[in-house]
Amino acid sequence: MFSRFYILIILSLCVSKVWASDPYIIEKGEAFSSYQARVKHYLQENKEWVNPTNKEIETNAVLPQQWEPDASCNSADIGKHGVLMFHGLSDSPFSVRDTAMALAAQCLRVRVMLLPGHGTKQEDLLNVSREDWRQTVAASFAHFSNEVDHVFVAGFSTGGALVTEFAWKNPEKVSGVILLSPLFKINTSIDWLSPFVSVFTDWLDRNKTDDYAKYASIPTPAIVEAYRIAKEVRALVRDNPKDIPVFIAMSEEDATVDSSVTLKLFDQSMIGESSQMLLYSRTQKAAQTNRKAVVNTYWPEQKIIGLSHMGVIGNPSNPYYGEKGSYRICDWHRSDEARYKKCQSAKENWYGERSDELLSKSDVAGRISWNPQFKNLMNYIGSFIRAHSVE
């Protein structure tokens, strides 16, 4: 009887130790499925639910995920090439899920990780640091590179800054870098004020989240961390030009990040001859040069004027964010509750990145969350990866 009692005590202590591990860090030798279960437990204990009857869907949306190569792929290629992906600030793995699935269909193992402070509730970003994010990237790469021969690192927004920094500091370890609407500077001339603002307030706004895949508001301390990581990585790349293969896809009209800074960094410091940029622009004509392609995104026949920050990587067929999806991004109408709700429910609305022209078409226009040319983008990325895959 006593022996059973002590065994139960020992087992409970062991389980407690397992769940006490940092939920965001995958440990050396840990099976991904075990790590995923550990994260899921943490999320279910700490997540703020949009709809408490929808817990499984909401949890799976923000859970780290891995996709294996499509079943039609040559089995000899499985395990050779992989993509390790990271989402942006306030986002979750769901934001890059479409991209991950499309690349897995191109015979790649794709793993999407969850950054500290994300996936639970926006208040959890109050005390997270860019060092936490860096540690997660480093641990994730170390683990994934033990399973895949050649690793491409990919990141959306802040995740793009993080993987760029990792690649620039570890150029011998990565096969290439894929940047999706990367953050190298916040799109405001007063981003430098964020550290001062954060001294006086934790929030510039604090809206209740109605989107189960991302937060509605970002606390000022987290904005400061994003500002600082962008500044540090920008300086690192600017002062250390490298020929690491880089692929960038972004919108010229991006309201979240300063696309002009990314363009300058690409031209001056991402100097590999085979590096490529796919620039979406509602004003420039379609064009193609050696390293850069421009896609015009003025599509009034589709009621679309330009692509947004997250719209670049959205699959039109996504059932949540897609063209006929169940959720609409209408944040710029939040100050007017009636207009916000009308934007979310409008059947024949206009979409794009915010502009006077867009709002003149519809006073409840929404922020586009899909890319009508998503398949072409995935083909570009797939071609880039194949061109830089070492056999």
Which structural traits does this protein have?
9-stranded mixed beta sheet; 4-stranded mixed beta sheet; Rossmann fold; alpha/beta; 391 residues
Which structural class do the helices and strands define?
alpha/beta
pLDDT < 50 runs, ≥5 residues: 1-20
Q: Count of helical segments?
A: 12
Please indicate the count of domains: 1
Strand order of the largest sheet: 1-3-2-4-5-6-7-9-8
> What is the terminal-to-terminal distance?
60 Å
Q: Any guess at the CATH architecture? A: 3-Layer(aba) Sandwich
Order of helices and strands: HHHEEHEHEHEHHEHEEEEEHEHEH
Radius of gyration: 21 Å
| Tally of strands | 13
- Strand-residue proportion: 5-15%
Largest sheet: 9 strands, mixed
Percent helix among the residues? 25-40%
At the third CATH level, what is the topology name?
Rossmann fold
What does this structure look like?
The protein has one domain: 3-Layer(aba) Sandwich (Rossmann fold), CATH 3.40.50. Helices cover 37% and strands 14% of the residues. The protein has helices at 2-20, 32-46, 55-62, 97-104, 130-144, 158-169, 194-200, 220-239, 259-269, 337-345, 356-361, 374-387, and strands at residues 65-67, 81-86, 109-113, 150-156, 176-180, 246-251, 276-281, 287-288, 292-296, 298-299, 304-305, 351-352, 366-367. With 391 residues, it is of the alpha/beta class. The strands form 2 sheets. It has a 9-stranded mixed beta sheet, with helices on both faces. Strands 10-11-12-13 form a 4-stranded mixed beta sheet, with no helix packed on it. It has 12 helices and 13 strands. Mean pLDDT is 93; it is low at 1-20. It is globular and about 55 Å long. Helix 6 runs parallel beside helix 8 and helix 7 (194-200) runs antiparallel to helix 8. Residues 83-206 form the Serine aminopeptidase S33 domain. This is Esterase/lipase.
